[in-house]
Amino acid sequence: MVQRLGGGSVLWFVTVVAMSTSSKPLQSAGHANHMGSLKPSASSLVGDTMSSTNDVPFDWSSDYEMAVVYITSAWTEFGDVRSPDAPLGIIAENGFLNYCVRFKTKLAAWAKSLQDRPDVSETVKKAVSSWYRAIDTLSQDNWNLPAALTLESFRKQFMTAYKHLVLNGAEIYEKSDSEIVKRDVDGFTRDVADTMIGILKGISNLCCRNKSEAFPRNATRNINSP
């Protein structure tokens, strides 16, 4: 496993992820034919993922999963991920709560938009509504936040959240009886996954900034003190 962010291997990995999650196929110079089938996929280089072993139907899911794994694994650069270091734990907690609230808001709007669509079956409408009710219940339980606010605990939280997202999206996708609705489910699920990736990058940036500012040790320990 690559450990240092400054290595060329990491830059190569990031390039592969960027290529594999790009919505635009590559084209050769001076030729009209697409070369999208030739670009490497991060997940194909790694092997089986949670998405592939669970037969998730979204062709982007494994690559996004690898991006989540990579970004959160790189948090080891900021120190001991199991340490209850107040600033880093709070940064991760705020990021996770931001994701949860935005996901719930997007899901509520999507569920409402489906209700008036005649091309969406009652089975799909009920499944999406049930998904929202489960998320609403989870939000009332404070999103099952971990007792210890550490980067490691929130790394696990985000991985669980990603699994929840794609497996529930996949279930609704399989219940859809038209290609239009399937594309809609795919688009919604990917939009939420994009939101998660953006938030994870934001957490990394804030942790990096916190590290570079080099708080005095005693100030770090007492950041929540009066």
The CATH architecture? Up-down Bundle
Number of helices: 9
Q: Briefly note the structural class of the backbone.
A: mainly alpha
Distance between the termini: 42 Å
Main β sheet profile: none
Anisotropy-based shape = globular
Signal peptide: 1-23
Keywords: Signal
Provide an overview of this structure.
This protein is an all-alpha fold and 226 residues long. It has one domain: Four Helix Bundle (Hemerythrin (Met), subunit A) (Up-down Bundle). Helix content is 66%, strand content 0%. Helix 5 runs antiparallel to helix 6, helix 6 packs antiparallel against helix 7 and helix 7 runs antiparallel to helix 8. The N terminus and C terminus are likely disordered.
Explain briefly what this protein structure is.
The protein has helices at residues 8-20, 42-46, 50-53, 61-73, 86-115, 122-140, 151-175, 179-213, 217-221. With 226 residues, it is an all-alpha fold.
